Amino acid sequence: MSVPTQIGVLLVNLGTPDAPDARSVRRYLAEFLSDRRVVEIPQILWQPILRGVILPTRPKKSAHAYAQVWTDEGSPLAAITRAQTHALRAALGEPAQVAYAMRYGEPAIGPAIDALMAAGCQRILVAPLYPQYCAATTATVVDAVCAHLKTLRRQPALRFLPPYHDDAAYLDALGQSVEAGLAALDFAPDVLLASFHGMPERTRTLGDPYHDQCQTTARLLADALGRPVEVAFQSRFGRARWLEPATDARLEQLGREGRSVAIFAPGFSADCLETLEELAIRGREQFETAGGRQFAYLPCLNADAPGKAMLEALVRRELAGWL
To answer: Rounded CA gap, 81 and 87, in Å?
Structure first.
């Protein structure tokens, strides 16, 4: 008896260690930092640094950071992505099958595609949950999907959710989320700071549109909110020059100036280590150590109502003619 044809939707986010311990973090970082789109250094030069310097030292420090934000449901990123998956599955109904995968770590992309096909999905929409396109994020998801398809005798029809940095549904959800966050504060921040994940400046000169798309998102959101939105870039790594201004440097400057700040991370679809530990905890500490007093971190879209409505709208549009 044949399995009825289903439509598959695969949400893909960056990834997370399985546990907040050094061994799990080491395994995760080894996969993540071995991706040639993430670190664009010749492997003959990079692998000795990765294996001999970074992996023996960094996992313990990162595990401590993960432990500060870990929940009973696991990592925040995994828990929130699961919640987004459940919400989208309920919103789409039959005949859609909605699953999620991580580009690095578990659940992996290949087995997730296999599971959707086993459930009868001959058409699959892959949705990288990155609003702004970058080769180190969006493109590497496409790489992994296509690499797995090369191993299959029978391949599904595929679509990919395009970047949505200037999409009305995304901007509307961001606007609602930021306004709700600001309304809940007991102070009016002098500065509304949008912190995007950083990238080496070299990626920009090579033609990556990421920097420009971040700026476009902030400009359009500022227009919608009717107030300025500053842009900064976080998570610098290594000695190369990264996109500027740097989030940590800007927070320290705002603290020294005695200005109040509300910071949010519009490039992240779900709260994770980079938002909850790097911004909400360390960012606050950097700001207050520099003399600042009024600081707030505004959550990502996550699986809250605006974020769920946005995700459903984007996915339904890309499923036109299929669903």
So the answer is: 10
Q: From start to end of the chain, where are the E strands?
A: 6-15, 96-104, 121-128, 157-160, 191-197, 230-234, 261-264, 295-298
Q: The whole model's pTM is what? A: 0.96
Of 206, 284, 277, 285, which Cα lies nearest the Cα of 37?
206
**Alpha carbon distance 115, 182 (integer Å):** 41
Q: Does residue 155 sit in the same domain as residue 280?
A: no
pLDDT, block means (10 residues), the chain with 323 residues: 77 97 97 95 94 96 97 97 98 95 98 97 97 98 98 97 98 98 98 97 95 98 98 89 97 98 98 98 98 97 98 98 92
Burial class (CB in 10 A: 0-12, 13-18, 19+), 5: exposed
Residue (of 167, 132, 173) closest to 268 by Cα position: 132
Closest among 258, 263, 287, 288 to 276, alpha carbons compared = 263
Does 178 lie in the same domain as 76? no
Q: Tell me, what's the pLDDT at 4?
A: 60
Strand partners, 126: 10, 160
Alpha-carbon distance of 205 to 311, in angstroms, equals 31
DSSP state letter for 303: T
Together in a domain, 153 and 203: no
Q: Locate 232 and state its tokens.
A: 């900064």
Which CATH number do you get for residue 126?
3.40.50.1400
Calculate the alpha carbon distances from 220 to 99, 138, 164, 174, 270 in Å.
Answer: 31, 22, 12, 11, 21
**Cβ contacts of residue 43 below 8 Å, gap of 6+?**
36
Nearest to 301 by CA among 100, 71, 130: 130
Domain count for the chain, please give it.
2
